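Input record (one chain):
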Amino acid sequence: RSNPRALFGEGVVYEIQQWDPSDADATDYLKKYKLAFPLDTEGEAFWVKPYGQSLSYNISLSQTDTTDMYEMSLKTGWNQVGSPYNRITGMQWDNVIVRNDVTGVEKTLQEAATGPLYWVDADLNEYVNGRYVSRGAGTVMEAQKGYFLRAYEDVTLKFDPTEGRGNVARIVRQVYDWEL
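The corresponding structure, as predicted from the sequence alone:
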C-alpha cells in the first residue's frame, strides 16, 4: 500500500489523487487535488487516474477494528469519504453521528444537516456514468466506494459498528496459517 509500483507495475503512467478541502482559497479546482500515497486510513476515498491506458488493480488496506467506534475528520468544504468498515451490508448513512470540532457538540446526521446552522449536507454525492448523483436519506454507504460530502464546519463523523445489528459487533481477525 505504500508502493504504487506494486499495484500497477512499471511503465504505467497514472496518478492516485484525493480531493483536498484544506486549500479554501484555491479558485482553480485542479489545485484542490493532492497525490494520495500512502493509502493508510480506513474510509479514505481516492481516484486512480490512468493516462493512455486502462488499469485494473487490487488493493489491500488494514482492516478497521469492527468492535470500536470509528471517527473520520472532515474539513470545511468538499471531502471524499467512504465506509470505514468492509462489510457486505454497508453502513446506513442516516445513522452516522456528527461532532462539531469547534464546540464538541454531537448531533445526528439529520440534526447536523438542518438549519439555521448547517454543519454538513445530508446527502452523499456519488459519481455514476459520468455525472454526480445525490444520495439522501436511506442511503447505504457501500464498502470500497467513494463519495463526496460537503461540510460547512470542521467536523468529525462517527461510525458505530453495531449500527443496524442490535448493539452487537463482530470482531474481524487477521487470517493466520498455523503449523505444529
